[in-house]
Specification:
With about 375 residues, the chain is α/β, with parallel strands linked by helices. Helix content is about 40%, strand content about 10%.
Length: about 375
């Protein structure tokens, strides 16, 4: 008869575990509606809209902190909500050349841990960017380490952008709070440069360079190693008071290139990144996990997501950041709750252009400095 070995970590003693669970209302998913503990159960919290998890962080955030958000479009949601509250968000402004086709805020989106690590190596560790990573595309060139924005551009402009990106991600060393929103585990690899890419090379690009590109599903160990290296780079180059927030983007993957259904592939990817983030946060004193993914995905999708059922709604973004700041000891309310970035930009196309070109960090910045006094419309 074979016996099962005891766990390496025996955990919490049985009686203590029971006592703690019974004492904490947030320890159970559901209790009777008439119970005094019902409002703090998951079912009770969902009845009020969002089931924001109870978090007891290891550190606090301060009103004078400098925030830098790196990740997918969900990072841009967090940026907006932080800025709405008057906080210093150093990752919001990306100055480009006038007329540059939209590198702006969305152009710096980072979808994988590999692409995040690449930018930190180039901006913080002095690793040179390989020129061959700028790939010929039709009549111009494309940087596959950037988000898929606009069309191909000249080689000279693509190189100039690299200098701008080095300065942009170099701001990480001056941030006191870095927020990493982890997105995807399915990642494309470029054999010519031996680099993992940020975006998917187009069908035409794959056909033009046969054998150069391949797709890979990264696992727990790979993503853990990359995040660990990122944290080491930030610690070596950054501030002594650096604090890092890890979270997982609730925005689902758009397309899979494996034989798996995209729904299954998405759950695998988010689960892998969630496990990595939680484990690393437990091991480092200046790293904490914030459950944005859980807040958004567990509640009513009609409230949590935009009509496309992919991007996070303003309501959900509001709740994620409000609860985050409150949990980390900072009560920062929005002075102008009527302002919504996307609505304002839709109503003012000239402001949208100015933001894309880097003249303003956001529509909100324009509204504070000019739009309110000019009587600009907040809605289309």
């Amino acid at each position: 008869m074979h016996s099962i070995a005891a766990p390496h970590d025996p955990g919490v003693e049985g009686a203590q575990a029971w006592e703690r669970s019974v004492a904490e209302p947030h320890a159970v998913w559901d209790v009777p509606v008439e119970s005094e503990k019902f409002p703090r159960s998951v079912r009770g919290r969902l009845a009020n809209g969002f089931a924001t998890p109870n978090v007891e962080p290891k550190f606090r955030v301060m009103p004078d902190d400098a925030f830098f958000c790196i990740g997918s479009c969900f990072a841009r949601v967090i940026e907006r909500q932080l800025r709405y509250r008057g906080l210093n968000v150093t990752s919001m402004r990306f100055r480009a050349e006038p007329g540059d086709p939209g590198i702006g805020a969305n152009g710096v989106n980072k979808y994988t841990t590999a692409s995040m690590l690449n930018e930190m190596r180039w901006s913080l560790a002095g690793v040179p960017f390989p020129d061959e990573a700028i790939v010929p595309d039709g009549s111009g060139y494309r940087d596959l380490q950037l988000a898929d924005i606009g069309g191909p551009i000249s080689l000279e402009r693509a190189r100039e952008r690299r200098g701008e990106l080095r300065e942009y991600f170099g701001r990480l060393k001056d941030a006191s709070v870095v927020i990493l929103t982890l997105g995807l585990v399915e990642v494309w690899y470029d054999r010519a440069t031996q680099l993992y890419l940020n975006i998917t090379p187009s069908w035409d690009t794959v056909q033009r360079f046969p054998g150069r590109f391949s797709v890979h599903v990264s696992d727990y160990a790979e993503n853990r190693a990359r995040i660990a290296e990122m944290l080491d780079l930030l610690t070596a180059a950054g501030r002594s008071d650096l604090r890092v927030i890890l979270t997982v983007s609730p925005v689902p993957m758009h397309r899979t290139f494996t034989s798996t259904d995209v729904l299954t592939a998405n759950v695998y990817g988010k689960s892998t990144l969630r496990a990595v983030a939680g484990d690393i946060a437990r091991e480092r004193a200046n790293v904490e996990y914030w459950p944005a993914y859980e807040i958004v995905t567990v509640c009513d999708r009609s409230r949590a997501y935009a009509p496309d059922q992919s991007h996070v709604s303003e309501d959900a973004g509001e709740e994620v950041v409000r609860a985050f700041l409150s949990s980390f000891g900072l009560q920062a309310e929005r002075p102008f709750p009527e302002f919504l970035e996307k609505e304002y930009l839709s109503a003012n196309p000239d402001v949208r252009t100015a933001v894309a070109e880097g003249t303003f960090a956001s529509g909100y910045e324009h509204w504070l400095r000019h739009g309110s006094a000019e009587g600009r419309s907040l809605r289309p």
